[in-house]
Amino acid sequence: MQQDLFVEKIVKRKRSGSELILSVTIVLAAILTILICLYVPVLIQQNVYFIALPVAVLIGYIAVRLISGLNREYEYSITNDDLIVDKIIAQRKRSNVFRGSCRDFTIFAPASGLTPDSFKQKNMRYLDFRSGEDHGCDWYFITKNDKSMVLVLFEPDERFISVIRRFNPRAFRQV
Known about the structure:
Distance between the termini: 37 Å
Number of helices: 4
Oligomer: single chain
Structural class: alpha+beta
Order of helices and strands: EHHEEEEHEEEH
Helix content: 25-40%
Number of domains: 1
Shape: elongated
Largest sheet: 4 strands, antiparallel
């Protein structure tokens, strides 16, 4: 009796510079909007703080949700020969972003020898499921998905590499 093979790993994505700028912009816009919301009753000389205070709290809550929505993680999992990549947003929402069989990989190799021109010239779709940090353990594979070629970058550990090598040794390239 053969047992199922299961390996998984979670990779937390590092925030990029544009995401940091967006976070600061959201905070500044929320502060400005709250100040305006609390200052309007003073301008119109009416006692409408019973409306202004809940609106200010709601603006703060929306800002927190928007900023936490920028937190992303990728979960890689291999069940037998199926590789599944899920994107987890703010540790609340999960969506499947890639599903494929390890047996369908045409190339599986370290990403150190990969140049941007190698996939742009061939009209491949490009999926990046890495953390954004330079660990030197980035790998890529090319597979056919939905009748088009897809290049996927990700950060497997030794368990993933050995499983993929086991199911598809001809696609494995070591640099």
